[in-house]
Write a structure and sequence with these properties.
Hypothetical protein af1432, alpha+beta, six-stranded antiparallel β-sheet, about 55% helix, binds fe (ii) ion, 2 domains, about 425 residues, Beta-Lactamase
Length: about 425
């Protein structure tokens, strides 16, 4: 009786340890290995192994083993009949010698003989086969008692739960990865569509070919220089690409007029920010301010812009960046009635209008980005690609920018205004 009591205490101790080991779940392989050792140790079993079931390959793959020998197969296949039988046994040990009718025990008969496997315990949790425990002979040489089998059953359940947890984690990781890829694909589709759309807008305007694409890029460079996050920079680029989308409803002859358009035509053209907003508003953008950038990219800090004549703080920050990128492109490209202006002239104009039309910190960010490229601090020659080598290599540009940067306040009283 005393011996039975000691055994019981010992078993409970082992079970408690096993529970703790499993809830620790730092390293799955380590957890299973320790659990196996606890199981073998608590009943003085000579050898054993734990295998995890793969429902994709219908195999039991060894996760931990002790004393099974090198010949013991690492993977053991299960056929439908075996799986059915294993499931119906639940956690209860199957005696090797009694199970010869099953294909599994016939195929691996030699291996089981060699490793002296006496019991195979299917690990079944919530009606799902998760693995199996293989157990060799007891050190005492005695047969397994029903008491032993109950203990094996209880301890195997812990191991089954550990495998179930691991499977769940693996499934979660797989789904997270799948979602990440899906999201990445969607994002790429979105940006590709935006770029295709920008190219389509630009095709309508034969004199300013590539305008939307360039404004998208300038907006991106400025946002980057302002220290925005990767997502925010991408959103800024999209806002730039789509800022003139409203022009698709403006008559081609007005857009392509080889002269300064008259007042009536101007009214027509000036509707494009509002139209752009209406087009972009119903679309679900991953970035919030895209429609607002279209709506307000012709507003000015001094309230003399359109369509609403907003003042400084009322203008969304992204619209201010697009506004500068838009003007910068207009000044640095040839128009039907006007040739582009020399870079130094453009910089001087932007500086003069900082605080009137443009936000000073945005002008500064553009200047800093340009200067970095001129000083060879940036890897790519991004501005040179858009403006041409000759244009960017004009005499004294870097010093003009340096002087401009020293002359303007690096900070501005302007603040980010959130619009709904
Ligand atoms: Fe515009
Ligand atoms: Fe534009």
């Amino acid at each position: 009786m005393a011996e039975e009591k000691a055994k019981l205490v010992h078993t409970f101790g082992a079970l408690a340890e096993l529970g703790q080991e499993i809830s620790n779940k730092q390293n799955f392989q380590e957890t299973v290995r320790t659990s196996l050792h606890l199981l073998l140790g608590s009943l003085a079993i000579m050898r054993g192994g734990v295998a995890r079931f793969s429902r994709y390959s219908h195999e039991l793959n060894l996760v931990a083993a002790r004393g099974l020998g090198d010949e013991f197969p690492f993977s053991l296949s299960l056929c439908y009949e075996d799986e059915r039988q294993f499931l119906s046994c639940g956690m209860y040990p199957i005696e090797n010698s009694q199970a010869k009718v099953l294909p599994f025990f016939q195929i691996y008969d030699n291996s089981f003989e060699q490793a002296k496997i006496e019991l195979v315990v299917p690990l079944v949790v919530r009606d799902e086969l998760l693995g199996a425990v293989f157990l060799g002979e007891k050190a005492s040489g005695e047969r397994y008692s029903s008491y032993d089998r109950d203990i094996i059953c209880a301890m195997s359940r812990h191991i089954g739960v550990a495998i179930a947890q691991r499977n769940m984690m693996a499934e979660l990781e797989r789904r997270a990865e799948e979602n990440r890829k899906l999201y990445e694909n969607l994002r790429m589709t979105y940006t590709d569509t935006v770029k295709a759309f920008a190219a389509a807008i630009d095709r309508k305007d034969k004199y300013t070919e590539g305008h939307s694409v360039r404004v998208g890029k300038y907006t991106e460079y400025i946002a980057e220089e302002l220290g925005w996050s990767e997502d925010e920079v991408e959103g800024a680029a999209v806002a730039g690409y789509l800022h003139d989308v409203g022009k698709i409803t403006v008559e081609r002859k007005i857009i392509n007029a080889p002269y300064r358009i008259n007042a009536k035509e101007s009214i027509e053209l000036n509707k494009h920010p509002g139209v752009g907003y209406e087009i972009l508003k119903p679309i679900h953008h991953p970035y919030a301010d895209v429609p607002l950038a279209a709506k307000y990219h012709h507003e000015r800090l001094d309230g003399r812009g359109y369509p609403d004549g907003l003042y400084d703080r009322e203008i969304p920050f992204i619209a201010k960046i697009v506004n500068l990128a838009d003007s910068f492109d207009a000044m640095t490209t040839d128009r039907p009635y006007k040739r582009r202006r020399p870079a130094a002239d453009v910089f001087e104009d932007l500086q003069r209008n900082a605080g009137k039309q443009f936000a000073p910190e945005i002008v500064n960010a553009l200047f800093r980005s340009l200067l970095k490229e001129l000083q060879g601090e940036s890897k790519e020659k991004r501005f040179r690609k858009l403006l041409g080598r000759e244009y960017m290599e004009a005499e004294g540009l870097a010093s003009t920018l340096r002087t401009a940067l020293n002359g303007t306040s690096p900070t501005s009283p302007l603040t980010f205004v959130a619009f709904d």
